[in-house]
Each structure stands twice: as C-alpha cells, then as structure tokens.
Amino acid sequence: MFRNYLKVALRNIIRHKGYSIIHVVGLAIGMTCCILILLWVQDELSYDRYHQKADRIYRLCLDANIGTQLWAPVAMAPAAPAMIEEFPEVVNAARIVKPERASVTYQGKTFQEQDVGYADNSIFDIFTFPLVSGDPQTALTTPYSVVITEEMAEKYFGDQEPVGKILRLDDEADFTVTGVVKNVPGNSHFSFNMLRSLETVARENPQLMEAWITVRFYTYLLLAENSDHQQLEQKFAAFVDRHMGDFLNPIGGTVKLFLQPLTRIHLYSDFGGDLSAAGDITNVYLFSAIALFVLLIACFNFVNLATARSATRAREVGMRKALGAGRGKLMAQFLGESLIYSFISIALACILLEMALPLFNSVAQRELSLNYFQRPWLIPGLLGLALVVGLLAGCYPAFFLSSFKPVRVLKGTWSASASGSGFRRALVVAQFVISIALIVGTITIYNQVDFMRDKKLGFDKEHVLVIPGMNQAVRQSYPSIRDELAIIPGVKAVGGSSLVPGRGITKSIFFPEGFSESQPQTMDYLLVDPDYIPTMGMEIAAGRNFSAHLATDSSESAIINQTAARRFGWDNPIGRTFRLPRLPGDEGEPLIVTVIGVVKDFHMTSLHHKIEPQIIFYDMSGVTNISVRIAPENIIHTMDLLKEEWNKINPQRPFDYFFMDESFDSQYRAEERLGTITFYFSVLAIFIGCLGLFGMSSHTVEQRTKEIGVRKVLGATIAGIVLLLSKEFTRWVAVANIIAWPAAYLLADRWLESFAYRISISWTTFVLAGFLALSIALITVSFQAIRAALANPVETLRYE
Questions:
Q1: Distance (Å, rounded) from C-alpha 441 to C-alpha 437?
Q2: Which of 10, 36, 38, 491 is the most buried (most CB within 10 A)?
Q3: Nearest residue to 475 via CA among 170, 203, 208
Q4: Cα dist. 635→392, 625, 647, 655, 659 in Å?
C-alpha cells in the first residue's frame, strides 16, 4: 500500500511539473527564511551562556536619583569587596573598567588596539575565560600586569612565549604579560583584547578605589549555589545607608542597587553607556514572528493550490471510495504526498542555506554556520521542520480532498470552482496581510534611520576628523599641537574636548543657584578648550564662548545648554552660578562658577535618548580628543598632511583617527541591520505570495479556457479579458490592505516608542505599501491573463 501511495504521489509530481515546482520552491524558500532566522534567534539567546557558572553570575546596577534620575549598569569601586565581606551569599566579585582604545608599543613598533580594559583577577574565577598560558590564580594580582588574547599574542609575539614579555601602553607605563586567554566568543556581552590589572588603578589612584560617590566600575557578583538574588537585593538598602548615608541624606539623594542576571544582559538591557551595544528581546520576538509568517505564507500557497486543483483529483477520490477506500487511508495518502513535497523542499532549503548564509552574516554582522556535526540538534531539527511543515501544509488538503462524495463526483454534479473557494480567498488575503505589514515595517525603519541621520544635532558632524585617546604627555603639549595642526592647508579649525558626541557621557551633581543643599541636580559635563565650540559648529544662544585671554574663564566660568536653563527655570541664565560638589576629605570653601554663555542644545548621545542638562567647563587638562574640521575639497591630501605633521609632533604614537559622522551614525547600525534584514524577508515573503498567485491564476485560466475563447469570438477585447481575470485577485489584495494597515500601524508605533526623537507615521507609508502589493499582484496575475487573452480562440475552443 505504501509503495502504491508513493508511486501515485511521484506520478502526480512529475505529471504536473509547473505546480510541483511552485510547491517545492515556495516551501523551500519559506523553510530557508525560517531556518536563517532561527539560527539568528538561537545565537541571540545563547549570549553569555557558555560561562560554566552563568546561572550564578549577576551584574550590580544602579538606580539613583540625585536631582535627576541615573540608571546605569555600573557601581562604586568599594561595593564589590564590601559585599563579599558583608553578605555570605556573595562568593566572589569582579570589577571591570570599560575596554577602550589604547596604543601598544613592542620593540619600537606602535599599534592602536581596541578593547583594552582593566579587571580584577577574580574575573577568571567567575567567568569562563580559559588561559592557555599563565596562572589564572595570579595573572592580574599585581600592578602593571596584563593578560592578552591568543589573537594579540600571535600578532605581537608570533611563535614566541608571550608570558614575561613587556608591552608599553599609551606610552605611559610598561606592562608585563602574565597570561594568554582564549579569544572571547562572539556571543559575549563584552569583549576584550587586553586586560590590565585593576591593581594598577589602585596604585595610581587609590582615592578612586575608595570613593563611594564615583560610579564607573562594571561589577559582577558570583552568588553561592541556591542563593535567591531577590532576597539579597532586599539587603541592599541598609548596605547603601551604611556606606553612603552620610553623603546622601543631607542632599536628599537616593541610590538603589539591584542585580541583573548575566544571561539577561544582552537582550534585556536598556542602559546608556553599556559595555557593548545590547540586543533587544523585541527584535527576537519580531524576527521569530517573521519566520513563522514567511513559513505560513509558503504553507498557505500549498493549501491554496492543492484545494484549487481539487477537480483533477476528484474522480480519483470518487473511484477509490467506490472501490472501498476509507477516508482515513485517503487522508494518509494525501498527507504522504505533502510530506514528500516537504522533504524535497528541505533538501533544496539546505542548498539555499549554504548560498544565503554568507550574505545573511554580512548583513547581520554574525558568524552563523551550519555545522551539522558540531550542532547535534540541527539534523533532527531540519527533519522535524520538514515533518511539521508537511503536516501543516497537507492537513487541510487531505481533509478537503478525502471529503468528496463519490456519487456526486462520478455523476459530475460536484463543482470544483465553488468548493473551498472562501477558504482559499481567506488564505490569499492572509498572505498579503503579512506581506503588506512587512512592507510598512521596512519603510518605517528606513524612514526613522534617515530621520536620525538627517536630523540637526546642534553641531556639524560632517568633515570632522577626531584624533582620540591622548595620553598625559600629549595633553601637556596640546596647545602647541593644536596650533601646528591649525596652520595646515585644508584645516579650517581645531578644538579639544574630554568626550566626543556619540561616544559616551560623564555625569556629576551640581548645585545651581536657587537650589538648596538638599536639591542637587545631576548634569552631563564636558571639558573643552575655547576653540571646541566654534570648531564643532555649535551656536551660542546667549552670552559668549570661553576666551583664552581671560584667566577667570578656566577657573570660575561655565557654559550651559538650553535644556539646563529651562530645567532650572532661568529666563536669563547669564550671571547665574553653580556650586560644585565637595568630595569627602575636601577642605576649604566650595568652588563657585558663573554662567557666561548658553549653547544651543546639541546631542551627545543617539536619538534614542533625550537631551539632558549639560554644563561645559574650560579645562585644558581634561582634553583627550582633538577634533579637526577640514575643508571638503581634497580631503585625502589634507589627511596626508595631517599624518605627516602628526608624525613630526609625536613620532612614538601612530596617527589614529576616525570621522565623527561615521562614528555618530554607527549608533544606528542595529536599526540599519534590522531594516535590511526585514527588507530581504519582505521581498521573499512577497515572492512566495506571488508564486502562489501565479499558480492560482494559472489554474483559473486553465479552468476558464473555453469561456475565454467564447468571449473572444463574441468580440471581447484583450483588455476586457485581462480585467475579467484580474479583478478578483485585485479585490483580495484590497481587502488585505484594509486589514493590514491598522495592525501594521500598531506594530510600527510600538517599535518607534524606543526613540526619544522619532518620525510620525505618515499615511503615505500605507498607501505606498498597498500600491506596491497591488502592483506586484497585478503584474503576477496579468502575465497569465494576457497570455490567455492573446491565445487563438480556435485553439481554446478545442480545449478538452
């Protein structure tokens, strides 16, 4: 019996090659999309789970209110050792300083390296970062020791033993290599190339390691087995009061510490200034839904074509039932045919996957692969997907085809065109609802990214070259370096700052005039030289800029932004004062600064976040980045001159730079990738839907061949016949638009909620999406309609 079913199935597949190709290609593309997205989702969900103690690792985070809200994934330096001592639940703790750029010199050669940070030695006890060389118990226990990755070891030392070698970092201190760690996996929420010992910071700045009011350390706790982190959190309020009450209570400030599970950091973090760009669980849900929808569209195609072509199988079903075949056996036969299509499709999908993975990895910035032997679940998963798809796609056709009444079928009173037509229309409408929603989503994402790129930021980011990470020696020579760079042909202006827009912020508390001791205000602050504001194209809204000729500007003056003036209720901010906070141990009178200017609001962070109150100080010692505005003409020549001059000024340090527009816009890479991926899958979803429409229209033309011939003989025009055959499909797409628009609006609006500055969803987006869907559907259907209308009526009337 099985052999008989198999023969019948294969004969049908071979006999109707066109429809078989539509079935297989549609299912294969749907499966390919689904598997690609599921690989991406699995990679997102795997972040940080490779650590052996992942379920016991938590990050200590901060929710503070000192004038304004501060929500950050960092904590105070003394918190980690104090918690180990005071809470038996805390077995160990490790602190990390965010890895940044650093210059590394070895044997006279200097390189600029990314991801160079500081960490406690306990990082190797808490996290699974295996050392291939060196002792994990002592690697970072002494000052001026450094652990490097295998990649760095190969780069600097080749086949030599790295341990014991000396590297000079930032041209300031020599570090001894004490260990080589395996390269950090890609599915880690933080990465590093080099880790210096935190004991180095303790030696160079012991006050920082003891300061309870400075928060800059990413702190991770290892809890004892079976510990309840929520019960531990309840003890944090008393802990904060013990150690910070003397500072917080007089000013009415609050600090709340809480724990974030390691395995939730990548997908559930919404902090600014995290160790790396976080993922978003919303995107996981979104792409999972896209995978399901694309697969459903492919299954709907199968169902539609199978039921639409039921007339070709009706007599077969009638004869089988008349000869005694039960409905169960008929259903098994048709399900078997569906499974054959499905398994052929999964084989084709595996080929398509190998072709599509490089492109997908390029767009998604991942290194996904089909390692069938390294992923033991993959082959069973693929077979399971084929089985599920085969049953899902074949269930209704099997039920539908096996339900035919043999008497009606054999007498010719059963109508194939009417049977199941309502269900088929519903499936076509559902296909286009999904496709239109994807088109709306794609347009919305691209419009928001364009809006963020084009929005005026309060400064001119174009043609600004930034030389970052100046060390102490370079900072001392900054005025002469600035003057040398400024006279280079093609250089329009040069300015220095402690931070660069798009690359982090610094916060502190201040006491504005009119606010009491118990009303401190948290503000972003920036250290600049007098040339920075004009170099960046920022505008002074009131007052004046700093002047290098006024000695008081560098010690007694400040500039604020418009948001600060509004927040403090100052209609005329010029002449208002700020009292700077006194740190524990400070003596003498607190420092008072006077507002000499108000700068128009500008964005230091991405448009995900609102502009916060900001204060700017003239402090040359804090300048760590040089911003060079260059003329747009002959940029390459100007850069060559800059590099040549820099090598004269500082031959020990390579000319390292980036362009501000590229750096700032890189904050939107995640949205760009989301838009690109959604676009590709939207195209594939529409393509699969059009495959179904093509098959449906082919079947419709096939069923109405005689009617078309008669109409042509009676004088019907080609345009009239095309309209006749196309209008039904057009109605379906129109209904799909009506259903898709409100659903797509709700989804797009929900996604845009994560942006402080966002577009308004225009009605033109929906009209464009509907027009595209309708046009594509008409083109697909019209191809068959025109071919039928152009056929010779003599030939069509001979049909059958």
A1: 6
A2: 36
A3: 170
A4: 59, 20, 18, 16, 12
Please, are residues 460 and 660 in contact by the beta-carbon 8 Å criterion? Answer: no
User: Which range, of 13-17, 151-155, 248-252, 420-424, averages the lowest pLDDT?
Assistant: 420-424
Residue (of 759, 596, 583, 784) closest to 692 by Cα position = 784
Residue 626 identity (one-letter amino acid): I
- Nearest 5°: CA angle at 415, between 412 and 417? 145
The predicted-structure confidence for 474-509, as pLDDT tens digits, reads as follows 777 888 888 888 899 999 999 999 888 888 788 788
Query: With 50 as the cut, is the pLDDT of residue 409 above it?
Result: no
Q: Rounded to whole angstroms, how far apart are CA atoms 678 and 438?
A: 7
Question: For the chain, how far is it from start to end, CA to CA, in angstroms?
Answer: 32
Structure confidence at residue 418 (pLDDT): 46
Query: CB of 436 within 8 A of CB of 442?
Result: no
Residue 705 has pLDDT above 50, yes or no: yes
What confidence score (pLDDT) does residue 82 get? 94
What are the residues whose beta carbons fall under 8 Å from the beta carbon of 95, sequence distance 6 or more? 77, 80, 119, 120, 198, 217, 218, 219, 220
DSSP state of 608: T
Element (H or E) spanning 333, and its range?
helix 327-364
* CA 663 to each of CA 192, 333, 429, 607, 608: distance values in angstroms, whole numbers, following the listed order: 20, 60, 44, 14, 16
* More confident: 53 or 307: 53
Owner of token pair 């309020």? 237
Phi, psi dihedrals of residue 277, rounded to the nearest 5°: -65, 120
CA distances 270 to 217, 663, 747, Å, are: 18, 20, 20
Please give the radius of gyration of the chain, using alpha carbons only, rounded to the nearest integer: 34
C-alpha span between 494 and 625 (Å, rounded): 11
- Give 216's contacts (C-beta < 8 A, 6+ positions apart): 74, 77, 97, 98
Average pLDDT over residues 354-366: 85
Q: Which of 366, 362, 299 is nearest to 691 (CA)?
A: 299
Spatial distance between the Cα atoms of 438 and 446, rounded to a whole number of angstroms: 12
Instruction: Give DSSP secondary structure letters for 437-499.
Output: HHHHHHHHHHHHHHHHHHS--SS--TTEEEE----HHHHHTHHHHHHHHHTSTTEEEEEEES-
Indicate the range of 151-160, 403-412, 558-567 predicted with least confidence: 403-412
How far apart are the C-alpha atoms of 715 and 727, rounded to whole Å?
20
Q: What's at 729, amino acid-wise? A: F
Q: What is the mean pLDDT of residues 673-695?
A: 80
Helix (H) or strand (E) holding 114: strand 109-119
Question: Taking a C-beta distance cutoff of 8 angstroms, is the pair 532, 627 a contact?
Answer: yes
Residue with tokens 């007498």: 411
Closest CA to 421 of 739, 702, 729, 698: 729
Return the closest-CA partner of residue 677 out of 183, 146, 288. 288
Q: Which residue has the tokens 């309708």?
A: 774
